[in-house]
Amino acid sequence: MGSRTPLPYSQIAGRAVGGALGIAIMATLAHASGQPLMMVPFATSIVLVMGSPEAPPAKPRAVVGGHILSAVAGIACATMFGDAFWVSAVGVGLAIALMHAADAFHPPAGISPLIITSVHATPLFLLTPVLSGALVLVGFAFLFHRLSGEDWPERWT
């Protein structure tokens, strides 16, 4: 097991402030739009993108793609099979497979099929809150990291 160089305290503080600020902005937008923030697991996504931006699941392709693919899996399963608990489980499994197949693996998005079947989401859920929220999250992270001197993302894909 290799050792990892700890981050400087200033960088830790900056990333923590960024995570808090990102969630505050997303919560404000969610409140203004009437969409509850917990409808999509963006809090865990922002923790990953701000706290560990170098991780492969924190790449923009993984964040946006993972959220979209997981939502598609949830909506497809709910449309075909209803909202039984086992449908949520199938949706989560399908989301994992789709994210891996598309090289867009983003673990926080994997819970979306459970949320989608629980709230009886329609296909419009893909646009708002999923796509719009993922784009806001990535846009915020890009600006925050660049303004704080970090080169995020190193690669967009």
Give an account of the 3D structure.
The chain is mainly alpha-helical. It has one domain (11-147). 66% of the residues lie in helices and 0% in strands. It is built from six helices and no strands. Helix 4 (85-101) packs antiparallel against helix 5. The chain is globular. The mean pLDDT is 91.
The amount of beta strand, in percent, is: under 5%
Q: What's the gyration radius in Å?
A: 16 Å
Tell me about the biggest sheet? none
Order of helices and strands: HHHHHH
List low-confidence stretches.
Answer: none
Terminus-to-terminus distance: 27 Å
What overall geometry do the principal axes of the alpha carbons give? Answer: globular
Mean pLDDT across every amino acid position: 91
- Tell me the count of domains: 1
Number of strands: 0
Number of continuous helical runs: 6
**What structural class results from the helix and strand content?**
mainly alpha
Helix content: 55-70%
Helix-strand blueprint:
Layout: H1 9-33, H2 42-51, H3 60-81, H4 85-101, H5 112-119, H6 127-147
Helix pairs in contact: 1-2, 1-6, 2-6, 3-4, 3-5, 3-6, 4-5
Summarize the structure.
With 157 residues, the chain is mostly helical. It contains six helices and no strands.
What characteristics describe this protein?
single chain, 157 residues, mainly alpha, 6 helices, 0% strand, globular
